[in-house]
Design a protein that fits this description.
Blueprint: H1 8-12, H2 25-29, H3 42-62, E1 64-66, H4 69-76, E2 85-87, H5 88-93, H6 105-119, H7 132-153, H8 173-179, H9 181-185
Helix pairs in contact: 6-7
Length: 210
């Protein structure tokens, strides 16, 4: 995998994407949020971060991974009690019914994480961010590789092999603003916390959506 991806912890653990949380981690993943904000305008940055939290939170609940039938049977260790459509939330936390074996939950966790990194354009060289088919295709390739490793050596890929190097989204600014227009139309509220940082560079040397 190319570099630039975030780990499962960055995407799913803690309260980074829980609406109402503190901290500016979303602005690290999405530097696009900084663009157009004057230095020291923490209120507007906080507002954009909160809108992005809501979007990501809804996205991981409503988006599903499609599992090939053979992969689903292996992950859930059953020829009858398995699912070929798993939400990103269920994939990362192993919730829902049926539940994969504890020893195989990592397959879904990493597949969901790779999906997020591709979809939101974090990996270097992603040519079609915000594209479900492209993200799902990559996740299926990784899923197959993870299953093979489990079957042959009962191991997982390392973070380095999966490209988890704490990069940022490289979606070009115009595409990002068009896709997430509610983020940039949100008005600053004086009740927002002032804990977040400074205005930043746009960091937008990425690729457009097709």
């Amino acid at each position: 995998m190319p570099n630039g991806g975030r780990s499962p912890g960055s995407w799913f653990q803690g309260n980074t994407w829980t609406p109402g949380s503190n901290g500016d981690a979303p602005a690290s993943v999405f530097p696009q949020l900084h663009v157009g904000i004057q230095s020291g305008d923490n209120c507007l940055l906080d507002t954009r971060i909160e809108e992005m939290r809501t979007i990501i939170n809804q996205f991981i609940v409503s988006t599903h991974l499609t599992l090939p039938e053979a992969a689903a049977k292996y992950i859930f260790d059953s020829d009858t009690y398995y699912s070929t459509s798993v939400s990103l939330t269920d994939a990362i936390f192993g919730t829902g019914s049926p539940v994969p074996l504890d020893s195989r939950k990592s397959i879904l966790r990493h597949s969901a994480t790779v999906y997020m990194n591709v979809y939101f354009g974090l990996y270097n060289g992603v040519s079609m961010p915000l594209n479900h088919s492209a993200a799902m295709e990559t996740a299926e390739i990784v899923m197959a590789a993870l299953i093979q490793l489990k079957q042959t050596s009962d191991t997982d890929m390392s973070d380095a092999q999966l490209g988890y190097t704490d990069g940022h989204s490289q979606i070009i600014q115009s595409t990002f603003e068009s896709e997430f227009d509610e983020v940039f139309s949100a008005a600053c509220s004086t009740s927002s916390s002032g804990s977040n940082g400074n205005s930043g560079n746009n960091g937008n040397n990425g690729n457009s959506r097709r």
